[in-house]
Specification:
Blueprint (H helix, E strand, L loop, with lengths): L9 H12 L6 H17 L5 H5 L1 H9 L5 H13 L4 H13 L9 H5 L3 H16 L13 H11 L6 H5 L1 H13 L5 H8 L7 H13 L44
Length: about 260
Protein backbone atom coordinates (compact mmCIF):
# COMPACT_ATOMS: atom_id res chain seq x y z
CA UNK A 1 0.00 0.00 0.00
CA UNK A 2 1.41 3.42 -0.94
CA UNK A 3 1.86 5.96 1.86
CA UNK A 4 -1.18 8.16 2.38
CA UNK A 5 -0.72 11.92 1.75
CA UNK A 6 0.28 13.77 4.91
CA UNK A 7 -2.30 16.45 4.10
CA UNK A 8 -5.18 14.06 4.89
CA UNK A 9 -6.64 14.50 8.36
CA UNK A 10 -5.30 11.91 10.80
CA UNK A 11 -8.71 10.35 11.37
CA UNK A 12 -9.16 9.82 7.63
CA UNK A 13 -5.75 8.18 7.28
CA UNK A 14 -6.51 5.91 10.22
CA UNK A 15 -9.86 4.82 8.84
CA UNK A 16 -8.46 4.20 5.36
CA UNK A 17 -5.73 1.99 6.77
CA UNK A 18 -8.28 0.13 8.89
CA UNK A 19 -10.48 -0.44 5.85
CA UNK A 20 -7.57 -1.87 3.87
CA UNK A 21 -6.69 -4.31 6.65
CA UNK A 22 -10.26 -5.23 7.56
CA UNK A 23 -11.42 -8.56 6.06
CA UNK A 24 -13.91 -8.05 3.25
CA UNK A 25 -17.50 -9.13 3.80
CA UNK A 26 -17.79 -12.75 2.68
CA UNK A 27 -20.67 -14.74 1.27
CA UNK A 28 -21.65 -17.82 3.31
CA UNK A 29 -19.91 -20.02 0.75
CA UNK A 30 -16.73 -17.94 0.86
CA UNK A 31 -16.77 -17.94 4.66
CA UNK A 32 -17.14 -21.72 4.70
CA UNK A 33 -14.23 -22.16 2.30
CA UNK A 34 -12.07 -19.75 4.28
CA UNK A 35 -12.77 -21.65 7.49
CA UNK A 36 -11.88 -24.93 5.79
CA UNK A 37 -8.60 -23.52 4.47
CA UNK A 38 -7.67 -22.33 7.96
CA UNK A 39 -8.46 -25.73 9.45
CA UNK A 40 -6.48 -27.49 6.75
CA UNK A 41 -3.48 -25.24 7.43
CA UNK A 42 -3.83 -25.98 11.14
CA UNK A 43 -3.85 -29.73 10.56
CA UNK A 44 -1.02 -29.73 8.02
CA UNK A 45 1.22 -27.72 10.37
CA UNK A 46 0.84 -30.18 13.22
CA UNK A 47 3.39 -32.87 13.97
CA UNK A 48 2.84 -35.69 11.43
CA UNK A 49 2.16 -38.50 13.87
CA UNK A 50 0.58 -41.80 12.88
CA UNK A 51 -2.97 -40.43 13.10
CA UNK A 52 -2.24 -37.47 10.84
CA UNK A 53 -0.29 -39.64 8.40
CA UNK A 54 -3.24 -42.04 8.17
CA UNK A 55 -5.55 -39.10 7.38
CA UNK A 56 -3.57 -38.07 4.30
CA UNK A 57 -6.07 -39.47 1.75
CA UNK A 58 -8.92 -37.51 3.39
CA UNK A 59 -6.84 -34.34 3.60
CA UNK A 60 -5.84 -34.63 -0.04
CA UNK A 61 -9.42 -35.22 -1.18
CA UNK A 62 -10.59 -32.24 0.86
CA UNK A 63 -7.97 -29.98 -0.73
CA UNK A 64 -8.88 -31.23 -4.22
CA UNK A 65 -12.53 -30.31 -3.58
CA UNK A 66 -11.74 -26.69 -2.68
CA UNK A 67 -12.91 -24.02 -5.13
CA UNK A 68 -10.07 -22.76 -7.34
CA UNK A 69 -7.93 -20.15 -5.57
CA UNK A 70 -4.26 -19.39 -4.89
CA UNK A 71 -4.65 -20.95 -1.43
CA UNK A 72 -6.05 -24.15 -2.94
CA UNK A 73 -3.14 -24.32 -5.39
CA UNK A 74 -0.58 -23.98 -2.60
CA UNK A 75 -2.30 -26.63 -0.47
CA UNK A 76 -2.50 -29.00 -3.44
CA UNK A 77 1.24 -28.60 -4.01
CA UNK A 78 1.88 -29.47 -0.37
CA UNK A 79 -0.43 -32.49 -0.18
CA UNK A 80 1.10 -33.89 -3.37
CA UNK A 81 4.41 -34.02 -1.51
CA UNK A 82 2.86 -34.97 1.84
CA UNK A 83 1.10 -38.06 0.54
CA UNK A 84 4.20 -39.38 -1.21
CA UNK A 85 6.53 -39.41 1.81
CA UNK A 86 7.28 -42.20 4.26
CA UNK A 87 6.10 -41.42 7.80
CA UNK A 88 9.62 -41.30 9.24
CA UNK A 89 10.69 -38.87 6.50
CA UNK A 90 7.74 -36.62 7.35
CA UNK A 91 8.71 -36.61 11.02
CA UNK A 92 12.34 -35.74 10.23
CA UNK A 93 11.34 -32.89 7.93
CA UNK A 94 8.96 -31.46 10.53
CA UNK A 95 11.48 -31.57 13.38
CA UNK A 96 14.20 -30.07 11.21
CA UNK A 97 12.04 -27.20 9.99
CA UNK A 98 10.06 -26.27 13.09
CA UNK A 99 11.87 -27.57 16.17
CA UNK A 100 15.52 -27.00 15.29
CA UNK A 101 15.36 -23.65 13.49
CA UNK A 102 14.39 -20.44 15.22
CA UNK A 103 13.59 -18.66 11.99
CA UNK A 104 10.78 -21.11 11.26
CA UNK A 105 9.54 -21.83 14.78
CA UNK A 106 5.75 -22.00 14.96
CA UNK A 107 5.55 -20.04 18.24
CA UNK A 108 4.38 -16.65 16.98
CA UNK A 109 4.99 -14.44 20.00
CA UNK A 110 8.69 -15.29 19.80
CA UNK A 111 9.05 -13.17 16.66
CA UNK A 112 7.31 -10.18 18.21
CA UNK A 113 8.77 -10.33 21.71
CA UNK A 114 11.70 -12.76 21.62
CA UNK A 115 13.00 -14.04 24.97
CA UNK A 116 11.57 -11.16 26.99
CA UNK A 117 9.05 -10.74 29.78
CA UNK A 118 6.61 -9.24 27.28
CA UNK A 119 6.24 -12.64 25.67
CA UNK A 120 4.73 -14.07 28.84
CA UNK A 121 2.14 -11.31 28.88
CA UNK A 122 1.39 -11.89 25.20
CA UNK A 123 0.81 -15.59 25.86
CA UNK A 124 -1.52 -14.75 28.74
CA UNK A 125 -3.44 -12.29 26.57
CA UNK A 126 -3.93 -14.92 23.88
CA UNK A 127 -5.13 -17.49 26.41
CA UNK A 128 -7.60 -14.97 27.82
CA UNK A 129 -8.84 -14.19 24.31
CA UNK A 130 -9.54 -17.87 23.73
CA UNK A 131 -11.36 -18.29 27.05
CA UNK A 132 -13.44 -15.17 26.42
CA UNK A 133 -14.92 -16.83 23.35
CA UNK A 134 -15.58 -20.06 25.24
CA UNK A 135 -12.80 -22.04 23.54
CA UNK A 136 -10.74 -24.42 25.63
CA UNK A 137 -7.45 -25.52 24.06
CA UNK A 138 -7.00 -28.24 26.72
CA UNK A 139 -3.52 -26.94 27.46
CA UNK A 140 -1.87 -29.29 24.96
CA UNK A 141 0.17 -26.49 23.39
CA UNK A 142 1.13 -22.90 24.06
CA UNK A 143 -1.57 -20.50 22.87
CA UNK A 144 0.76 -18.91 20.29
CA UNK A 145 1.52 -22.19 18.50
CA UNK A 146 0.46 -21.52 14.92
CA UNK A 147 -1.84 -24.56 14.53
CA UNK A 148 -3.67 -23.43 17.69
CA UNK A 149 -3.96 -19.85 16.43
CA UNK A 150 -5.26 -21.13 13.09
CA UNK A 151 -7.90 -23.30 14.72
CA UNK A 152 -9.07 -20.36 16.80
CA UNK A 153 -9.29 -18.24 13.64
CA UNK A 154 -11.41 -20.93 11.98
CA UNK A 155 -13.74 -21.16 14.98
CA UNK A 156 -14.11 -17.45 15.80
CA UNK A 157 -14.38 -16.01 12.27
CA UNK A 158 -12.48 -13.54 10.09
CA UNK A 159 -12.66 -10.45 12.29
CA UNK A 160 -11.97 -11.39 15.91
CA UNK A 161 -10.70 -14.87 15.12
CA UNK A 162 -8.07 -13.78 12.61
CA UNK A 163 -6.90 -10.78 14.65
CA UNK A 164 -3.96 -12.74 16.17
CA UNK A 165 -2.85 -13.76 12.67
CA UNK A 166 -2.93 -10.14 11.50
CA UNK A 167 -1.06 -9.06 14.62
CA UNK A 168 1.70 -11.56 13.88
CA UNK A 169 1.77 -10.89 10.13
CA UNK A 170 5.50 -10.15 10.16
CA UNK A 171 6.34 -13.35 12.00
CA UNK A 172 4.33 -15.36 9.49
CA UNK A 173 6.18 -13.64 6.66
CA UNK A 174 9.51 -14.55 8.24
CA UNK A 175 8.49 -18.20 8.68
CA UNK A 176 7.46 -18.35 5.02
CA UNK A 177 10.74 -16.76 3.95
CA UNK A 178 12.79 -19.20 6.05
CA UNK A 179 10.89 -22.21 4.69
CA UNK A 180 11.32 -20.93 1.14
CA UNK A 181 15.06 -20.43 1.66
CA UNK A 182 15.26 -24.01 2.95
CA UNK A 183 13.20 -25.26 -0.03
CA UNK A 184 10.81 -26.92 2.42
CA UNK A 185 7.44 -28.08 1.06
CA UNK A 186 5.89 -26.54 4.17
CA UNK A 187 6.40 -23.17 2.48
CA UNK A 188 3.22 -23.94 0.49
CA UNK A 189 1.12 -24.13 3.68
CA UNK A 190 2.40 -20.75 4.84
CA UNK A 191 1.86 -19.35 1.36
CA UNK A 192 -1.76 -20.57 1.43
CA UNK A 193 -2.28 -18.86 4.78
CA UNK A 194 -0.71 -15.59 3.63
CA UNK A 195 -3.16 -15.36 0.72
CA UNK A 196 -5.92 -14.90 3.31
CA UNK A 197 -4.22 -11.95 5.03
CA UNK A 198 -3.73 -8.35 3.92
CA UNK A 199 -0.61 -7.94 1.77
CA UNK A 200 2.47 -6.78 3.68
CA UNK A 201 3.19 -3.08 3.76
CA UNK A 202 6.61 -1.62 3.03
CA UNK A 203 7.05 -1.21 6.78
CA UNK A 204 6.24 -4.91 7.26
CA UNK A 205 8.85 -5.95 4.71
CA UNK A 206 11.50 -3.72 6.29
CA UNK A 207 10.72 -5.14 9.72
CA UNK A 208 10.93 -8.72 8.41
CA UNK A 209 14.33 -8.01 6.83
CA UNK A 210 15.56 -6.51 10.10
CA UNK A 211 14.18 -9.43 12.09
CA UNK A 212 15.86 -11.93 9.75
CA UNK A 213 19.19 -10.13 10.17
CA UNK A 214 19.15 -9.31 13.87
CA UNK A 215 16.68 -11.63 15.55
CA UNK A 216 13.93 -10.82 18.06
CA UNK A 217 14.47 -8.93 21.33
CA UNK A 218 16.37 -10.79 24.04
CA UNK A 219 16.61 -10.42 27.81
CA UNK A 220 18.10 -13.81 28.75
CA UNK A 221 21.21 -13.54 30.90
CA UNK A 222 24.22 -15.46 29.66
CA UNK A 223 23.24 -15.82 26.03
CA UNK A 224 25.61 -14.52 23.41
CA UNK A 225 24.26 -11.87 21.03
CA UNK A 226 22.19 -13.21 18.20
CA UNK A 227 24.06 -13.88 14.99
CA UNK A 228 22.86 -12.89 11.54
CA UNK A 229 22.16 -16.41 10.40
CA UNK A 230 20.31 -18.46 13.02
CA UNK A 231 19.41 -15.81 15.65
CA UNK A 232 21.52 -17.65 18.27
CA UNK A 233 24.64 -19.79 18.44
CA UNK A 234 24.13 -23.51 17.66
CA UNK A 235 22.89 -25.40 20.68
CA UNK A 236 21.46 -22.36 22.46
CA UNK A 237 17.85 -23.11 21.59
CA UNK A 238 16.29 -26.17 23.17
CA UNK A 239 12.99 -26.81 21.38
CA UNK A 240 9.99 -27.51 23.59
CA UNK A 241 8.82 -31.07 23.97
CA UNK A 242 6.39 -31.99 21.22
CA UNK A 243 2.86 -31.71 22.55
CA UNK A 244 -0.05 -33.82 21.30
CA UNK A 245 -1.81 -32.42 18.23
CA UNK A 246 -4.54 -29.87 18.86
CA UNK A 247 -7.85 -31.61 19.34
CA UNK A 248 -9.82 -30.94 16.18
CA UNK A 249 -12.95 -32.78 15.00
CA UNK A 250 -12.04 -35.08 12.10
CA UNK A 251 -12.65 -33.92 8.57
CA UNK A 252 -15.17 -35.91 6.62
CA UNK A 253 -14.39 -36.87 3.02
CA UNK A 254 -16.04 -34.49 0.54
CA UNK A 255 -18.73 -35.80 -1.74
CA UNK A 256 -17.19 -34.17 -4.78
CA UNK A 257 -16.11 -30.84 -6.21
CA UNK A 258 -18.35 -27.93 -5.35
Amino acid sequence: MSPLPATLPAIVRTRVRAAVRRPARLTPEEAETRTLVLRLCSLLLQYPDAELAAARPVLTATVEALPPSPAAEHLAAFTAWFTGQEPDALERQYVEMFDLRRKSSLYLTYYLHGDTRRRGMALLTLAQRYRATGWNTDGGELPDHLPVVLEYAALAGPRAGEAPLRQHRRGLELIHRALTDADSPYRHVLAALLTLLPPPTEADLRAVAELAAQGPPNEDVGLDPYGAGEFAPPGTFVPPEQAPPTLIPPLTPPEGPR
